[in-house]
Recover the amino acids of this structure.
């Protein structure tokens, strides 16, 4: 094999490997939390009445938890549905001032689970 044939074979291999890598990345890409209310890392001064989670693609909200700074679970009374939605709203009970962590798990239409968490702080005006 001369140098030109070797170069051509190597170039084809690199192009093929790159195409496979891009296809694999797209196939395994999962949607992420795009925005939330209360906002991610926000400090809010008024009692929030709901959590609103906005995702990049329709997902089922499989689980959602809210914990305070002492890791105490706040009952959200959330019921799982099989609805694929871009946005999910969950009612909140009255909350005392604290920093809260929202922990969520979703399932995409491809059946893959995704999870994440974010914080917000409630500090009501006195």
């Amino acid at each position: 094999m001369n140098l030109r044939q070797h170069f051509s074979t190597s170039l084809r291999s690199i192009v093929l490997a790159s195409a496979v890598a891009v296809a694999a990345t797209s196939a395994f890409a999962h949607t992420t939390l795009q925005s939330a209310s209360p906002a991610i890392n926000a400090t809010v001064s008024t009692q929030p009445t709901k959590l609103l989670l906005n995702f990049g693609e329709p997902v089922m909200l499989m689980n959602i938890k809210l914990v305070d700074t002492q890791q105490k679970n706040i009952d959200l009374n959330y019921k799982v549905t099989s609805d694929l939605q871009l946005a999910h709203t969950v009612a909140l009970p009255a909350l005392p001032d604290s920093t809260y962590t929202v922990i969520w798990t979703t399932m995409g239409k491809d059946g893959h689970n995704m999870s994440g968490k974010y914080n917000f702080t409630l500090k009501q005006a006195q």
User: Anything to note?
Assistant: Residues 33-122 form a domain with the Immunoglobulin-like fold (CATH 2.60.40.1220). The mean pLDDT is 85. The radius of gyration is 22 Å. The chain has two domains: 1-30, 33-122.
